[in-house]
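User: I'm putting together a small comparison set for a docking exercise, and I want a reference complex before I start. The sequence is below, and the ligand is alpha-L-arabinofuranose. Could you produce the 3D structure with the ligand included, as structure tokens?
Assistant: Of course. I'll restate your input first, then give the structure tokens for the complex.
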Amino acid sequence: MPRPKITIHLDEPLGQIAPELYGQFCEHLGACVDQGIWVGCDSKIANIDGLRRDVIEALRRIRVPVMRWPGGCFADDYHWMDGVGPRERRPRTVNLWWGHTIETNGFGTHEFMRFCELVGCKPYLAGNLGSGTVREMRDWVEYCNFAGDSSLARLRGANGSPYPFNVKYWGVGNENWGCGGNFCPEDYAAEYKRYATYLRDFGGTELFLIACGPDSGRAEYHADWTRRFFKKLGSFNRIHGLAAHYYCGTAGTATEYSTSQWYELLERAGRMDDVIRAHRAIMDEFDPQRRIGLLVDEWGTWHPPAPGRNPAHLWQQNTLRDALVAGITLNIFNNHAADLVMCNIAQTVNVLQAMCLTDGDRLVLTPTYHVFDLYQSHQGGTALRTTVESPGVSFVAGDERRTMPALTASASSRGGALTLSITNADATLPQEVELDLRGGGGSSLGEATVHVLAHEDLTAHNTFDEPDVLRPRRDDAALTKNVLRLPAAAVTAIRSPA
Ligand code: AHR
């Protein structure tokens, strides 16, 4: 068998990797916001203005560019006025979607903005189209962004923020084919137009309005929703983005799976590529100038409920397999730099494919966090076309025998520095990969650093008692001239200096 080979075409830029492709999503769901982000100012857990210090520091380290809030399904039953003003007077509301938990509304607009400020990321607000009103969403924009002397701007000032928040990203509903109102695409398009008409730019903040895309879990539904939505939208142009969601789901459970199930899930993660291609192709029919950007504003694994946890709270462990899902998916995003404007993994803390898990005052970083860390130098870089000659792996899913490539890769350059990230999905075989840098007039990986996230146990994960079972280790010796040795089941990042 010929040696696996990765060719980086240094003279074939694909476009800038928007930092926003490394975005996050946090919802009022289980312990994501309450306990995961917000503990309140009187908490014994170290906090800044009620926000967990350890989570803020962890997210700062991976340079989170943008944070989507307050949902998810929760967004279409969230009334933003419940979350402003003196906390002791805020209403206690029932979270309809996620276990009928009582929301104290202690974490509202101002707390979210402060969180974003501390993390150093941009806010992305998902508005309520399902159970809200046009006036409510239009008022939220004014409250956040108007600098003049209106009553809503005064109210914002009285609540502690005289200066506007200047929020650019606004979702006009969420999953409106389902939890966001059960609309058909035509009815949603009509509602979208009505809402977007009244969502206005104030001052220098030009809104980026995001429409809900299809249920990507059902292939036959993608094209239908997106085409019918754009058809009905016609020439209406207050739309800047369309947001697809794609969860690769699970195979087995979060921490118990066979080798076949390992591959089954990783293969499904790889289908993100089809989701992006399919959506972009339909959008190109209606918007050939690409004025409207494509987002994937929810993605990740979704495992069965963890034993002993509230199934409505979507808490799950995160293993080496989730790390591979993240590595494969982020490689796809980088390679689609020209097709995507934002992507947000679900969800930041304690829910689904989280970055961090918390338990009281303890915090553990997940393998997925480490992948975001390893890949962070791709943010803002220029994606370079990369071709991968990979051995295949063969596995059985259900009654079917399938194959998938063992390797995926993406590369980018920034300020003369090169980042190359590679996943090896092969559960047992290490790989010796030839790296070929073409068209760069003598560029090399000579002084490169190599970091590897790997483990011989496919189900390895970090726990509160053993938080460092999986963490990247530096292994520059893995690269000799142009040959890179990759362990089995690994995510690797190589960085050459500028
Ligand atoms: O992330 C969990 C849920 O998944 C979100 O609330 C919803 O938008 C999606 O179905």
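The pocket of alpha-L-arabinofuranose is lined by residues 27, 71-73, 174-175, 298, 346-347, 352 (CB under 6 Å). DSSP finds ten helices and 26 strands in the chain.
User: Thanks, that's exactly what I needed.
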